């Protein structure tokens, strides 16, 4: 049996006529950059994320960059964040000349260990940038307390977490600016690159709208040095078809996660592997279902590949050890939990269209490897 890590075919086929129609509509309009389709999508996204504003842009990476630009992050400014994330979480800081100040992760949730943050705050701290890794919110209530106490804004890297919640509040609505991605593998994926930001602050929204179009509020008059980071109408049209399905897709991922929990437990495998922790009072949208395999993770992965089961490692190198950040002077063991996670985690297929038979096969094969 073949079980790919992600298969978009079935999902795309199920909405194919509406997608074709949306593409045709944009072609007929002959308006391709921003425009009415993007504006309508922005209103729908703000509504979905429980925020006043949503500002579309060219990628999740740019959303992070634009958010930090809105706070004028510049040479020598410090931004506190996690070393265990996708590269863009940190490149958005260093691109602006900022200095990432890493804090290790909580080994159970893989998100920032909030207890370690206060000790790292200095006069140079410009922002704290938590990541909602795999689709589960970082501890936002505690982060908000720290943000208030030190008057340092929070920027959420919610690229993997559209629709995730903590105490009923949605990702992107719990900070100054939330940053999201439409990369095709996210729960709401486009057919190309795209992203957006959310905020409740009118002045920040105005600045973000300007920053994405070369920093101009009025054409050819430049208030800031911004980016060319716009969403195109084709992506907006496609995403507007997909958005109404998002909750049912995310709920299906959650069902699949529950199935895995039961299957792994019934198979007696919860000693050899560690299942992902779900926080209380939180909605996990399972962009990824990541298990921890303390022994022989790479051999298991190889065995699964041989049995046509797709897996991946998010992420194999902790960001403080990346070659391009060597100048920051970090070394091995500086963030031991992050480094251990990079050696032990393994993402399994979790996409909405995955069948129970496929899940049973995945668990059976993992059992076969671990028991031998
Ligand atoms: C996907 C992702 C990004 C970047 O989004 P792109 O749209 O690919 O630029 C940033 N941070 C995290 C945590 C991500 O998963």
Radius of gyration over alpha carbons?
A: 21 Å
Bound molecules: pyridoxal-5'-phosphate
End-to-end C-alpha gap: 21 Å
> CATH top level of the largest domain?
Alpha Beta
Largest sheet: 4 strands, mixed
CATH homologous superfamily title of the largest domain: Type I PLP-dependent aspartate aminotransferase-like (Major domain)
| Poorly predicted residue ranges | none
Q: Architecture of the largest domain, CATH level 2?
A: 3-Layer(aba) Sandwich
> Spatial order of the strands in the main sheet?
1-9-8-5
Q: Helix and strand string, N-terminal first?
A: HHHEHEHEEHEEEEEHEEHHEEHHEH
Kindly report the average pLDDT value. Answer: 97
Strand content: 5-15%
Overall number of strands? 14
Number of domains as seen in the coordinates: 2
| Global structural class | alpha/beta
Query: What overall geometry do the principal axes of the alpha carbons give?
Result: globular
- What is the overall number of helices? 12
CATH topology descriptor of the largest domain: Aspartate Aminotransferase, domain 2
User: What percentage of residues falls in helices of 4 or more residues?
Assistant: 25-40%
Q: Could you describe the 3D structure shown?
A:
The chain folds into two domains: 9-244, Aspartate Aminotransferase, domain 2 (3-Layer(aba) Sandwich); 245-371, Aspartate Aminotransferase, domain 1. Helix 2 runs antiparallel to helix 8 and helix 9 (246-266) runs parallel beside helix 12 (356-371). The chain is globular. The protein contains twelve helices and 14 strands. It has 372 residues and is of the alpha/beta class. It binds pyridoxal-5'-phosphate (PLP).
């Amino acid at each position: 049996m073949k079980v790919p890590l992600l298969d978009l075919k079935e999902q795309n086929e199920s909405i194919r006529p509406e997608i074709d129609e949306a593409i045709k509509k944009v072609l007929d309009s002959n308006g391709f950059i921003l425009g009415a389709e993007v504006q309508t999508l922005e209103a729908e996204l703000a509504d979905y994320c429980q925020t006043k504003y949503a500002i579309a842009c060219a990628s999740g990476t740019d959303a992070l960059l634009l958010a930090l630009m809105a706070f004028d992050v510049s040479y020598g400014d410090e931004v506190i964040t996690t070393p265990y994330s996708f590269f863009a979480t940190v490149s958005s800081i260093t691109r602006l000349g900022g200095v990432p100040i890493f804090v290790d992760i909580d080994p159970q949730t893989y998100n920032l260990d909030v207890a370690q943050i206060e000790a790292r705050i200095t006069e140079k701290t410009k922002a704290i940038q938590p990541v909602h890794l795999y689709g589960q919110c970082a501890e936002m209530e505690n982060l908000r307390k720290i943000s208030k106490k030190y008057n340092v804004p929070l920027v959420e890297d919610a690229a993997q977490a559209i629709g995730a919640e903590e105490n009923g509040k949605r990702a992107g609505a719990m900070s100054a600016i939330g940053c999201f991605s439409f990369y095709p593998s996210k729960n709401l994926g486009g057919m190309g690159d795209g992203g957006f930001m959310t905020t409740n602050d009118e002045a920040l929204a105005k600045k973000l709208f300007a920053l994405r179009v070369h920093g101009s509020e009025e054409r050819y008059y430049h208030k800031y040095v911004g980016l060319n980071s716009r969403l195109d109408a084709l992506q907006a049209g496609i995403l507007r078809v997909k958005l109404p399905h998002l909750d049912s897709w995310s709920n299906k991922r959650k069902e699949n996660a529950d199935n895995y929990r039961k299957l792994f437990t019934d198979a007696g495998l919860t000693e050899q592997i560690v299942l992902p922790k779900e926080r209380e009072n939180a909605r996990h949208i399972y962009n990824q279902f990541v298990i921890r395999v303390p022994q022989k993770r790479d051999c298991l992965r190889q065995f699964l590949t041989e049995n046509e089961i797709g897996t991946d490692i998010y992420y194999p190198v902790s960001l403080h050890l990346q070659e391009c950040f060597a100048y920051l002077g970090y070394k091995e063991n500086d963030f031991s939990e992050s480094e251990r996670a990079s050696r032990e985690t393994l993402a399994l297929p979790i996409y909405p269209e995955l069948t129970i038979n496929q899940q049973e096969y995945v668990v059976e094969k993992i059992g076969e490897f671990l028991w031998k």
